[in-house]
What does this fold into?
Amino acid sequence: MNDTGGGNARRTVLAILAHVALIVAWYLFVSLGNVPKFVMPSPGATLDALLQPNYSWWTNISVTAAEIFGGYFLALVGGVALALVFTWSKALESFFMPLLVSLNMIPKVALGPLIIVWFKYGVFPNTVMAFSICVFPILLTTARGLREVEPELLDLVRSLKGSRWQLFTKIQLPGSLPYLFAGMKVAAILAVAGAIVGEFLGSDKGLGYLMLQVQVTLDTPAMFMAVILITLIGMILYGSVLFLEKLFVAKDARIG
Amino acid sequence: MPASADPFIRLKGVRKAYRSGRNEHLAISDATFDVMPGELVSLVGPSGCGKSTLLKVLAGLHPHDGGELRIGTATHPFDPSRDVGMVFQAPLLLKWRRILANVLLPAEILGLPQKESRDRARELLALVGLTGYEDKYPYELSGGMQQRAAIARALVHDPKLVLMDEPFGALDALTREKMNLELLRIWQEARKTIIFVTHGISEAVFLGTRVVVLTAGPARMADNFEIGLPHPRLLDMKTHERFGEYTRRIYRLLGME
It folds into this structure.
């Protein structure tokens, strides 16, 4: 609330400095400590890994990104849709919500081998993996946000004989947005993990798959590069969510 | 006030009970009082004495279980679906709406013409001293200012009856005194009938043309009397001898003397 323009600029500079400092520290550690390349490559050696044409970086990046964004988008649509259904039908909510809370307890990673049995291996099962890990936080937080209406606000609407639809559009729906975004932020981090675990378990493309391939030849620089690229994909997803939140949620209402 | 004038609100032996399972909890046992058009009636009593319940019954949110309740007269008709304005202890402004849009909420729900409502909302924001804050978000305003906006919201659809449930209870003492004076000014300009629930005894006397005293469990009405202090009320009236008599009377009724 007290952020002035100058304060924001200073924060940005500090954030960039911290990242640069890490890379410098990494460089110094490797070069001064004479660390072997297969244990930890230098930043330069890591970048050089991109020059290896037989690693098909672009294909692998797009496959992994497609799984992450695809699974995330499906989870967003599915989670929000279910939450909306539950708001409109108390009966359905009372029946399915406890079940979903239990299902949420399943470690989604443990479903990996099953998903491969059901859907073979490839982009689709990994998308399903990312979806299954993302959908619960989005569904649960959104349902909670839609439920949490101050009782007095309800009184206010009722005292004016407002309709159920008015309550929904004017109070419940906008009121649930901060919760939705809180769920979306958690899910954005989980989506990346879901897709990569899927690729580890069984696939023939993607950055996770590539990591397993180059591990055999101890090409550590390529593994470093793959991790960095996976992180960047995650940052793009998370950053987009933050950007949308800034657009749609009033500053004071943001959660997490 | 002529004795023949019809009261705007008449309560006669109004009773309200809540059932939870097999138990019945009596929230209001026998509320009997009249409110004249344009009065500001303070409803005072300890926590759990049924003040808020009574307010909800008056707002038409809960039916009463017994007795007679009538609001409105031939000269002052009352439409329960659009003639109630409500202010709560918390401002409860919608965080995602700017102040002007927050004030407009009841007008939107009632489907009132937009242009007129906006003009009226601006006038009301001026009345409560918030000119220039129309496009701010609630978090940019102090607690007292948010409550002023909530009062403007309660008036935007021009209701005949405004129900206030401890509206200044969450404010610090100084802001509260200031808001008391503000409310009296708003009340005199807006010419509304106001029911003001509070557990502040001095606040009840200072604001009310009449005070209705309720005592806690078994909930019942203990007293109902006019406050014979002139208007406009000024803060130094609190040191007035008669002001002391009124507050002592209430303290005695609540068994605090």
Notes: Chain B touches chain A through 25 residues (CB under 8 Å). The mean pLDDT of chain B is 90. Residues 6 and 176 of chain B are 33 Å apart (CA to CA).
